[in-house]
Amino acid sequence: MINQNQAARISITGSLAIHGWNHLDPVLLASLATESPLLLVGPHGTAKSLLIERIAGALGLSLRHYNASLLNYDDLVGIPVPEEDNNSLRFITTPGSIWDAEFVFFDEISRCRPDLQNKMFPVIHERRVAGIQLTRLRHRWAAMNPPAPDEPLPNNTNQPMNYYLGSEPLDPALADRFPFVVAVPDWRQLSKDDRRRIVSYQDSVEHPPADDALSGLPELVAACAARISALEVELDAWVSDYMLVVMDLLDKAQLAQSPRRARMLARSAIAVHAARLVLEGEDASLDDSAEIALAFGLPQNAAEVPPSDATVAAVHRQAWEIASLMDDDVWRQILEERDLPRRVVMADRLDFNDLDISRLITQALGAEASEARRIGLGTAIFLAFRDRRELTSAAWEPLAQLAARVLEPRPMFGVIRPGSDVTIWQEIKDWLLMPDDGMNSFLSRLARNYVLCGFPELWRRENWREALDRFASDLEMFGIREVNQS
């Protein structure tokens, strides 16, 4: 994940006296330059509303600030009355109605009634209200507190310090209309210097920045928009390739996205890179820009438990490696295979060197959440490579430890609990007495040892029959049919 304290050469939020947000400057500028909806997610008192008010002021735009939890539809459109011919309606507007707004901010959007969320939908997505185009409206931003999880998870750093019981998850379709979903920093995430600036009277949020500190924002937005136009042509092929891989990896990480989100993320990657070029100079890396766009572009950032920084960073890193390879590169063939054990098989067939094979093995074992699968997989890989690969110690050590549980005969001692343990043992005993259905003696002994080594502790947590089927599949995948045991 990009360092939160990484400062841009030009700081938008710093010039607006919003402290500790420098790492978000490229995202904010990208949203402004593309006029894309942006959702801020964070605890109360973190300057979400203040930021938007100051940005609108710096851009000289007419702002409408609506508290969505208290909003009525009439507050948006005014009071409808029929025209004299009774064939149409006109609206008696108020100073707070939306018709002439250039910047709209829906605060507390997660506390809004579902029927009003539906009415906000066309405003955010299409810049329309009651079917009428809002011709002056440019920016649609919103803010919310993190919704409370159904079951709070202790020591989960991705959960907020406080739970907001009145904050509900957004409708997925509405959340999917925000290209940028930005988690804002709370007090714990601020540096000591930023905390000092916030509490200092001389640099307090109660004292707005001077006019000259705000005057440059329209020029920054225009410069970013110009860079986006050029980069869309220059980076289109690469970003498309990168995003295809990202979508597959997000799906595997149980962070599935819509086709609309894929297009949003592709556009956001270019916009964020353009923003960083404007703010930081020509040495801003596309690698970091793509990661920032991904980290602040997932609708799950507004969920009860947002995705971890490590998960998003891992998805980006793997997608970046794949997209950086040529189409005919053998590593590309490997990395495009989503099943990690199959990568090991493919790399072996493509005659990868022992170091690369070792790296793929450690990745496959480390990513496997099932202990039973890890034991079976380790055994299959050990048997496949023990005589023909000089793997690194980092690969051999876990392989040997896992395979030893299946391959080394040893006396078994354990306590069998009345109830489920007895039931499981009866199933295993009945299975042991069954004929082998033509299975050769070595594979038969492997299967029996595998089942017995997991009793009782492992099979209390996992289904032994399903695990045995996976073990048989892994043996077949790695070509284990009979082994010389001399």
How would you characterize this protein structure?
With 486 residues, the chain is an alpha/beta fold. Among the domains are: 12-61 and 138-235, no CATH class; 328-486, no CATH class. Helix content is 51%, strand content 7%. It has 22 helices and nine strands. It has helices at 12-15, 25-34, 48-59, 73-77, 114-126, 172-175, 192-199, 211-214, 217-234, 236-252, 259-280, 286-295, 309-323, 330-336, 340-349, 354-367, 371-385, 393-407, 420-432, 441-453, 457-461, 464-477, and strands at residues 38-41, 63-67, 79-82, 89-92, 103-107, 128-129, 132-133, 139-144, 180-183. A hairpin with a 6-residue loop joins β3 and β4 (89-92). α14 (330-336) runs antiparallel to α15 (340-349) and α17 crosses α18. It is elongated, with a radius of gyration of 29 Å. The two termini are 50 Å apart. Residues 1-7 have low confidence and may be disordered.
Average pLDDT works out at 87
Q: Please compute the radius of gyration using only Cα atoms.
A: 29 Å
Largest sheet data: 5 strands, parallel
* Fraction of helical residues: 40-55%
Q: How far apart are the first and last residues' alpha carbons, in Å? A: 50 Å
Flag low-confidence runs: 1-7
* Share in β-strands: 5-15%
Number of helices: 22
Envelope shape: elongated
User: Largest sheet, order of strands side by side?
Assistant: 2-5-8-1-9
Give the number of DSSP strands.
Answer: 9
Structural class: alpha/beta
Descriptive key words:
9 strands, five-stranded parallel sheet, alpha/beta, disordered N terminus, 486 residues, 22 helices, elongated
